[in-house]
Amino acid sequence: MGAVYFYHLTRQPLEQTLPVLLDKARQAGWRIAVRGTDPARLDWLDEKLWLGPDDGFLPHGRAGGPHDAMQPILLTTETTAANDPSCLMAIDGAAVEPDEVEASERVCILFDGNDQSAVQAARVQWKALTSAGCSAQYWSEDSGRWEKKAEA
Question: Where are the beta strands (DSSP E) in the chain?
Answer without folding.
Answer: 3-9, 32-35, 61-62, 73-76, 87-91, 106-112, 135-140, 147-151
